[in-house]
Design brief:
The structure is a single chain. By secondary structure, the protein is of the alpha/beta class. It has one domain (2-109): Transcription Regulator spoIIAA. The protein is built from four helices and five strands, in the order ββαβαβαβα. It has helices at residues 24-38, 56-71, 83-91, 104-109, and strands at 2-8, 11-20, 43-54, 75-79, 100-101. It has a five-stranded mixed β-sheet. Helix 1 (24-38) runs parallel beside helix 2 (56-71). The N and C termini lie far apart (27 Å).
Length: 111
């Protein structure tokens, strides 16, 4: 898995490529997000357009990102989750918890 971080104003865009599953990929994701939040960057847009498989551990990492950002006064939103992740979010009713966007500019403007 690869993680790329860029900024758009106060928003940090975290682009994830590959699988977000138990093991090193989930640990890398968690480290990257924790570092951003610890540095005061609490408005996060998680670009998931290039994510493959997401298991329960990966889903937990997304939820943890949301709750941690909110505790620090920020937000975590999802951009372009692939169909398999959309279905998982719907099945777990997390689609009502996350702010989900398909358009980058619209997503950044929503913060």
């Amino acid at each position: 898995m690869e993680i790329a971080i860029r900024e758009d104003g106060r928003v940090r865009i975290v682009s994830v490529t590959g699988d977000l599953v138990i093991g090193e990929s989930e640990a890398s994701f968690k480290r990257a997000v924790t570092r951003l939040i610890d540095d005061g960057h609490v408005d996060l847009l998680l670009d998931l357009g290039k994510v493959g498989m997401v298991d329960s551990t990966g889903l937990g990492a997304l939820v943890r990102t949301l709750t941690t950002a909110q505790k620090e006064g920020g937000q975590a939103k999802l951009l372009s989750p692939p169909p398999n992740l959309k279905k998982l979010l719907e099945m777990t009713q997390l689609d009502s918890v996350f702010d989900i966007h398909q358009d980058l500019e619209e997503a950044v403007a929503s913060f």
